[in-house]
Specification:
Elements lengths: L8 H13 L9 H6 L7 H20 L9 H11 L1 H4 L6 H27 L3 H26 L1 H4 E2 L16 E2 L8 H20 L5 H17 L2 H18 L3 H27 L4 H5 L4 H14 L2 H6 L6 H10 L8 H8 L1 H25 L4 H20 L8 H12 L10
Antiparallel strand pairs: 1-2
Helix pairs in contact: 1-3, 1-6, 1-7, 3-6, 4-6, 4-18, 6-20, 7-9, 7-20, 9-10, 9-11, 9-19, 11-19, 14-16, 14-17, 16-17, 17-18, 18-19, 19-20
């Protein structure tokens, strides 16, 4: 994909780079460290980028003469989800954290509205922003690859002690990022999103050595990260793409035959790989998640009507309850239980409406706007991969890579005109 050229693009891009900066950190913090010191050098980049991005977006929207502030339905549901967070503050035991996350969330949502509004004044900006987001994801994966070169021992996690299950896995290590701290799960998810986009890109253009190398490197990242949600999400979306969108009948037949052969001769090895050194009992409990979810459900069930409706603190309620449930993590590892605890039934209702309207918008655009077919298929793939992730990991209910990816993708669905290529 070639870069998009629009008037004053560098100036208009500036707040987008600051939005990317809100997700950059060069060291991690534990739950107890975050509780004792909400603002520290570890998250200084985020704290600087957040207000800067918001201020620049407001100034540029005024300069672009955006007079009519129209909110797409998809963002409307997320704004309703966010606004309900105010009511969750009344029963929040970690109010400062909830307030910071509430402001962060709004900044990302406002970034999506900024893209849509500027695109209406300068057609092509929505797709340009989507292109920049893709470049940002490549930058993150690039930092992971650089980490392998500089210090393989830091990049390949092998477990903290002799009881670590990963040491008994087919691959006795998992790939993570250490220059920019990125968990193995996120490495796998980001790589799977880029991998699917590159597969669609390759199918819609001419083969090149560079595109093949990109696909191979990303596939290795997905495998070495050993993120089962990433592998499952990619497998699901690739299957849908090959069945529904791939038009080469001979290619379909060849891929089907190769897939069948792999399953016949390597199914046991694939199964052992996916077990990741765990036994069937541990796998059946989704690495202990079902016990955490049971605790969260009992907590929700026994809560008063107000907490059931509005939750226990925007993004904060989940973390407090998660530590009580597993004494090790600060997440319930499920988007839906996280929302029930933090945002209540009110938040869950608007969250589900967002997903429904996002898919509706993508399918409608696929039917009515053929010039965006490739990009829309890529965005649908992103939706599916992220949706798979929401089952076992908190994903869009907080300020994450995936919220930013989703917001930029939804904004791209509202592009007004095809951009000009050189």
């Amino acid at each position: 994909m070639k870069k998009i050229h629009i008037d004053k693009s560098l100036q208009l891009d500036l707040p987008l780079f600051f939005l990317f900066g809100t997700l950059l950190s060069f060291s991690g913090r534990t739950f107890s460290e975050a509780q004792s010191n909400l603002f520290s050098a570890d998250n200084m980049i985020r704290m600087v980028c957040l207000p800067t991005a918001l201020l620049i977006m407001i100034i540029l929207m005024l300069k672009c003469d955006v007079k009519r502030f129209c909110i797409p339905k998809e963002f409307g549901w997320l704004l309703a989800f966010w606004a309900g967070g105010l009511f969750s503050f009344f029963h929040c035991s970690w109010l400062s954290y909830a307030l910071v996350k509430w402001v962060e969330y709004f900044t990302i949502l406002f970034g999506g509205l900024y893209i849509v509004m500027v695109d209406r004044r300068r057609p092509g900006f929505g797709e340009h922003a989507f292109f920049l987001m893709r470049g940002y994801l490549r930058f993150l994966i690039g930092s992971v690859l650089l980490g392998i070169v500089l210090s393989p021992s830091k990049a390949f996690y092998t477990g903290n002690d002799e009881f670590s299950a990963i040491k008994n896995a087919v691959l006795p290590f998992i790939l993570g990022g250490w220059i920019i701290p990125i968990s193995s799960t996120s490495v796998g998810m980001i790589a799977s999103i880029l991998l699917f986009m590159d597969v669609v890109e390759l199918d819609c253009s001419h083969f090149s050595l560079r595109s093949i190398l990109n696909i191979l490197v990303l596939a290795v990242c997905v495998i070495f990260s050993q993120s089962r949600t990433a592998i499952l999400g990619f497998a699901v979306v690739l299957s849908i793409y090959l069945i529904v969108f791939y038009r080469n009948s001979l290619g379909k037949f060849v891929i089907f035959c190769l897939g069948t052969l792999v399953l016949l001769f390597a199914s046991s090895q694939i199964y052992k790989f996916l077990l990741r050194g765990q036994n069937l009992e541990m796998l059946g409990s989704l690495s202990g998640r079902t016990e955490w979810w049971g605790y969260a459900w009992r907590f929700f069930r026994d809560s008063g009507w107000y907490c059931k409706t509005f939750g226990n603190g925007f993004a904060a309620g989940e973390k407090v309850i998660a530590v009580q449930s597993n004494q090790a993590m600060y997440t319930l590892d499920s988007e839906y239980f996280a929302i029930l605890i933090s945002n209540g039934l009110y938040g869950l209702f608007f969250y589900v409406l967002f997903w429904i309207s996002a898919f509706q918008k993508a399918f409608r655009r696929l039917r009515t706007n053929i010039q965006y077919r490739k990009q829309t298929i890529q965005i649908l793939g992103i939706f599916v991969i992220i949706l798979v992730r929401t089952v076992t990991v908190t994903t869009l209910a907080v300020h994450t890579y995936y919220l930013l990816i989703m917001v930029f993708s939804v904004a791209a669905l509202h592009c007004t005109n095809k951009y000009n290529r050189k």
